[in-house]
Write a structure and sequence with these properties.
alpha+beta, 8-stranded antiparallel β-barrel, 16 strands, 15% helix
């Protein structure tokens, strides 16, 4: 996900967005009404890279009250089945969360507030040495699709993203059919799976060879770079593949 980090709406409201698994997002909204009171709503769902939304039906609102020593005096769960969606807006770096209450939609907009532990300002030309593709598309569309297919071991989807011929573990594969035949009894090694799960897509490592995902599990390059053809990032190397 390219939207991981903190979003703010005033001094007392914060939304923390975290990646969850291969293609999910977890959002925690915290409202601190006073030193003695806090609301926290947690929701999660799959991230849709096309619409840049996360639909959820598990929003859980917990109300906390604190004593004079700062300890929790009472913890109350108001509901645990809130439904709605979160929408990310790359044009102005904002997040909109809409909960669908029976009485009508309640819309809360969280404006961008850079988190101390994330890269909130990046170079739009970060990948310009290997592709003319827009940086946002590289990270939220191509990167997200590749990581999802790799983690889900969706070899059919991955086969369509490869530039052939490709060599995996010393075996040369001429085309998609050869790749799919080779991958029939293969899986992703757990350490490589974790490395790809940790990939946040922000400013991925890039050099003259291409764009590196994870710690080298997948490398991408663009055969149409420096031509009149439309940019097309393809997989040129895959590692972390082992026998079942």
């Amino acid at each position: 996900m390219n939207f991981v980090g903190k979003y703010h709406a005033g001094d007392n409201v914060e939304a923390l967005v975290e990646a969850e698994g291969a293609n999910g997002a977890r959002i925690t909204v915290t409202y601190a009404g006073s030193p003695w009171f806090q609301n926290r709503t947690v929701m999660s769902g799959a991230f849709d890279a096309e619409t840049l939304t996360v639909a959820f039906s598990n929003a859980t609102l917990t109300e906390y009250t604190y004593n004079s020593q700062g300890g929790a005096a009472e913890e109350t769960v108001s509901y645990s089945d809130g439904k709605g969606r979160a929408l990310f807006h790359p044009e102005d770096n904002t997040l909109t969360i809409i909960e669908e209450y029976p009485s009508g939609d309640l819309e809360t907009v969280y404006s961008w507030g850079p988190a101390a532990d994330m890269k909130s300002v990046t170079d739009p030309n970060w990948y310009s040495g290997v592709t003319a593709m827009d940086k946002f598309k590289v990270e939220t569309e191509v990167g997200f699709a590749v990581r999802t297919a790799y983690l889900e071991e969706n070899w059919n989807a991955l086969a369509d993203m490869i530039r052939y011929p490709i060599t995996i573990n010393g075996t040369a594969l001429a085309d998609a059919d050869a790749f799919l035949e080779y991958m029939k009894d293969k899986t992703v090694h757990e350490s490589d799976r974790q490395a790809m799960m940790d990939e946040d897509f922000l400013d991925m490592f890039v050099n003259g060879e291409g764009i590196c995902m994870g710690s080298g599990q997948v490398w991408l390059n663009d055969p149409n770079y420096m031509t009149d053809m439309a940019p097309q990032l393809q997989i040129i190397a895959i590692s972390g593949i082992v026998d079942r």
